[in-house]
Amino acid sequence: MSNFHNLLINRRSTRRFKDELLKPEETEMILSAALLSPTSKNSHSWQFIVVDDKEMLEKLSRSKEHGSKFVANCALAVVVLGNPIVSDVWVEDASIASIAMQLQAEDIGIGSCWVQIRERQYNDHISAEDHIRDLLDIPMPYEILSIIAFGKKEKERTPNDTDALLWENVHIAEFKS
Ligand SMILES: Cc1cc2nc3c(=O)[nH]c(=O)nc-3n(C[C@H](O)[C@H](O)[C@H](O)COP(=O)(O)O)c2cc1C
Question: CA 55 from chain center: how many Å?
């Protein structure tokens, strides 16, 4: 990737992965991106659980009714947790770490997709978070923001269209509707 702007243009969510493992150094780079990400008051309020076991990926892929099935076919899933006792803005810390991992992955040619867990349901009675807490033995007070699924892209997607950027959402000096 030549520069950061091109990286942003080319990054698209990948939900179809090749049946191919990541190299250990690729996994390390992705996780180091998370650990390099900034946190409010330098609190490092996040924790990350790395999953590559096929059976567990399959179980995680059933965390919610829509938008998580592809986790079953990814090479690696990182479950992103935050500690609300350590930081009142753990959601922001964990979100920044999540996107840092996605951009790092893109930079080394690996596709990824965010799977939202916080505020999502496994079924009518059980939250997606409680489902995963149970599967991965996650203690309180940790909360689960996301699962980021990674893998080699089955095929490249069309880059973002810079002519379609929502410049109308940018306001100069004051909010103008
Ligand atoms: C906070 C957040 C939550 C998301 N949750 C999901 C999800 O649960 N499942 C999914 O397939 N994609 C999810 N996505 C990916 C978005 O659908 C995707 O980024 C968006 O449609 C734009 O497409 P692009 O990433 O290809 O540019 C999420 C993205 C963000 C930023």
Answer: 20
Q: Is the pTM of this model over 0.85?
A: yes
Probe residue for ligand 1, chosen from 113, 132, 165 as the CB with the greatest number of ligand atoms within 8 Å: 113
Q: Which CATH class is domain 4-169?
A: alpha beta
Atom of ligand 1 nearest to the CA of 157: 26
Give tens-digit pLDDT for 84-118: 999 999 999 999 999 999 999 999 999 999 999 99
Specify the residue with its C-alpha closest to ligand 1, atom 27. 12
Burial of 6 (0-12, 13-18, 19+ CB in 10 A): exposed
Q: Quick one: pLDDT at residue 176?
A: 86
- Cα 78 from Cα 62, distance rounded (Å): 15
CA torsion sign for 45, 95, 111, 78 is positive
